[in-house]
Design goal:
Blueprint lengths: L11 E3 L2 H10 L2 H5 L3 H13 L4 H9 L7 E3 L5 H6 L8 E6 H15 L3 E2 L1 E2 L1 H5 L3 H10 L4 E4 L2 H7 L8 E4 L8 H6 L3 E4 L2 H14 L3 E6 L11 H9 L7 E7 L11 H16 L5 E2 L3 H4 L9 E2 L22 E13 L4 E2 L5 E2 L4 E6 L16 E4 L2 E4 L9 E4 L13 E5 L5 H8 L3 H6 L6 E5 L7
Parallel strand pairs: 1-2, 3-21, 4-12, 5-6, 6-7, 7-8, 8-9, 9-10, 10-11
Antiparallel strand pairs: 3-13, 13-16, 13-20, 14-15, 16-19, 17-18
Helix pairs in contact: 6-8
The protein binds pyridoxal-5'-phosphate.
């Protein structure tokens, strides 16, 4: 049986080089005596492949310290490590460029010309990893972060500087007020009931509590309805004890620049703000930023554009691409004319073809609606998807790619330079948001472009 070291495992993990030394020094001899050299080799390979700082690897492996058994990882827990064989076996490699996210943030800031720019990092930063994305944006100067759920906010709190504010868009479920306060989170209050509960806690604690007030200006989704707003406007005392950080609303059609909804909502929003006690205002999402300064108010709340999604329908995308998704080929086969491929035999070879089976399927969030219409890329060569996407595999017709160029173990680009998120989404009959937020947990995730190890 493996002995447990002082950090509670037989391998030592550290997210920063500076943490490594104390870990090495505190490791018990039994810990390392149980590490076989083959494992160290495997660890070393993995570190190289995940782009680990070479100096750290050399230090670990050159130092004779207890057979170089310590592991510096990019924030992986022991459970992750034990559960994963790493990039050598993952069905897909998802590369997430934190540098591109930060460049996108800088571009939006530039367009906002001095108006504050938040980051919407709900749904695990649109599937890309809030634990990595939010701290990277904090290093770019972002101080306002929006999530949807209280639990998302609680998980994010320790990853951000104390002065960063975390706002919970989906409101304040009854009974969670004290939890929200304990974690220094700011609720978005969507109803009179939520206002009363938050003001009640403020009274009990004898302190002012921060909140955003959301008004519905036309989406009929969340926030104060017109009658509720009138009630609050007539009884502003109900806000006693609440420090109104912002009044906000959300645009329904901002990506369509000529939609009349945009100005209608903006004007309703202005009127709502006038009816309420004076507070800063926030209206624009990513697309709203591109509607111009009239929509910027005091704080913009972009999500999608940070992650590379085009903010304006029908116009070239000014944002940098953020992800690359590569699917691993696990088998190649030559088939005869007339042979079928995939469930339901919906695809048939008109001539002898070569097919590559990739280890990615709809269980990984690769949409089933791409069946018989998706396109992958090998280098710059487009390769059509053949048949139905199945749960764990997808078949591509690679006949046009020279056979020596592609074999088992090689990768096909599923999302990337030649097939950006929006293009994949449009082929799949959905939106880029859904493609990103559906990205599966089985991919090997590789973060690049950060200024700090570990993202
Ligand atoms: C209230 C609110 N604000 C801002 C955003 C960010 O929108 P986008 O991702 O389009 O920038 C969202 C996303 O759905 C939202 O619900």
């Amino acid at each position: 049986m493996r002995q447990r070291g002082p950090v509670g495992c037989s391998h030592l993990y550290s997210t920063r080089e500076s943490n490594l030394e104390p870990l090495l020094n505190s490791a018990s001899p039994q810990t390392d005596a149980n590490i076989v050299s083959g494992e160290v080799r495997r660890i070393k390979d993995w570190l190289y492949e995940t782009g680990m700082n070479e100096q750290v690897i050399r230090r670990q492996t050159n130092s004779e310290v207890r057979q170089g058994a310590a592991v510096a990882s990019r924030g992986h827990s022991e459970e992750d490590w034990m559960a994963q064989a790493g990039p050598k076996s993952a069905g897909g490699i998802l590369t997430i460029d934190l540098g591109a996210i930060r460049a996108n943030y800088a571009l939006l800031q530039q367009r906002l010309a001095g108006v504050a720019c938040a980051a919407v990092v709900k749904a695990d930063a649109y599937g890309l990893g809030a634990a990595q994305v939010a701290p990277a944006l904090a290093r770019s100067g972002c101080r306002h972060f929006f999530v949807a759920h209280l639990d998302e906010a609680i998980a994010l709190r320790p990853r951000l500087p104390a002065q960063a504010e975390i706002f919970v868009l989906n409101g304040l479920p009854a009974g969670t007020e004290a939890i929200c306060l304990a974690h220094q989170l700011t609720p978005v209050l969507n109803s009179l009931a939520e206002v009363d509960a938050w003001a009640g806690l403020a009274r009990d604690r004898g302190q002012k509590l921060p909140a955003i007030l959301q008004v519905d200006t036309g989406m009929s989704r969340l926030g104060f309805s017109r009658p509720e707003l009138a009630t609050l406007a007539d009884n502003p005392g109900r806000l006693n004890g609440i420090a109104l950080r912002y009044i906000m609303s959300h645009l329904a059609c901002a990506e369509h620049q000529d939609s009349p909804m945009n100005t209608e909502q903006r004007d309703r929003f202005r009127r709502a703000c006038q009816a309420l006690p004076l507070a800063p205002a926030s209206l624009a999402n990513s697309s709203g930023i591109f509607l111009g300064p009239d929509f910027h108010f005091d704080l913009a709340r972009p999500g999608a554009a940070l992650y590379g999604i085009a903010p304006v329908a029908g116009k070239p995308n000014p944002m940098q691409p953020v992800i690359r998704l590569q699917g691993r080929i696990i088998q190649i086969r030559e088939i005869e004319a007339g042979a079928a491929a995939g469930y339901g035999a919906t695809w048939r070879a008109s001539t002898p073809r070569r097919l590559a089976t990739v280890s990615v399927g709809y269980a990984d969030g690769f949409p089933r609606s791409l069946s018989n219409r998706g396109i992958g890329f090998a280098g710059g060569t487009p390769i059509p998807l053949a048949g139905m996407v199945s749960m764990d595999t997808t078949i591509f017709d690679v006949s046009e790619v020279p056979s020596e160029m592609l074999g088992p173990g090689d990768f096909i680009d599923l999302i990337g330079e030649h097939n950006p998120v929006d293009a994949v989404a449009s082929r799949a009959g959905t939106i880029g948001y859904q493609i990103l937020t559906s990205l599966g947990r089985r991919y090997h995730r590789h973060y690049v472009g950060s200024d700090e190890p570990g993202g």
